[in-house]
Task: structure prediction
Amino acid sequence: TWKWVVGPMFLYLCERLVRFWRSQQKVVITKVVIHPFKTIELQMMKKGFKMEVGQYIFVKCPAVSKLEWHPFTLTSAPEEDYFSIHVRIVGDWTEGLFNACGCDKQEFQEAWKLPKIAVDGPFGTASEDVFSYETVMLVGAGIGVTPFASVLKSVWYKYCHDATNLKLKKIYFYWLCRDTHAFEWFADLLQSLEAQMQERNNAEFLSYNIYLTGWDETQATHFAVHHEEEKDVITGLKQKTLYGRPNWENEFKTIAGKHPGSRIGVFLCGPEGLADTLNKQSISNSEADPRGVHFIFNKENF
Result:
């Protein structure tokens, strides 16, 4: 038995040593941004750190806990000179990080007072394959929108730098959220992309739909009064917020009709129930003919 055990144990110990060495490398917090509804953004730098879109890291803050590691999706793009995560304050550890970074204080926090951070990663996800398709559907549910912040930033950097060599030509983005609490920081990113695309006369590059799934008819009716205004009352975007859940069958059929004979990548970061729905729609709307439209489903769950 020992002959079968020694090999895997040796590989496991090597992997643990590599991860320990990476976690000991110095990480500098360059900026802490406080977003509404107790969400903070940590912008960091680390020597030799290289990332791809949609990847995640493990983070440890010894000032909060010397043993706990927590995974966070990277929200920065590889083209930026820093890497960042967004942390929603929802528990003891995130509350401790919030206080350790001085976010509970009114005065300006000096950089040298910020806590030490250990980072392990980055680690890959399915979202890295987004540049392998000409057309993609990105579906984020709640905080599952974070990997697509990295994707959308990187796509736009690549588009602005060399649009002719960018294989990706069309993005359909769907964001499903129970309430408006998560809108603030991500809506800022969408507003920036929306403005830049209009400046370059390519507003059709990104089609996005935001769905509020947790509102009742009374709340929706109150905001429907302002539907004719130029910008949405909730997000400040030109695209109006929708209420309820998407009709996925109609969405898939519409996209299939617009892109006949294409391989369309479907990327989800969300719960298992939504993954089953999108997987079934991807299969049922793909044609048997190899020259027809095909939906390729990719998922990551949290």
Notes: Residues 125-298 form a domain with the Rossmann fold fold (CATH 3.40.50.80). The chain has two domains: 23-121, 125-298. The longest helix spans residues 2-23. The helical segments are 2-23, 92-100, 146-162, 183-199, 217-224, 248-258, 272-284.
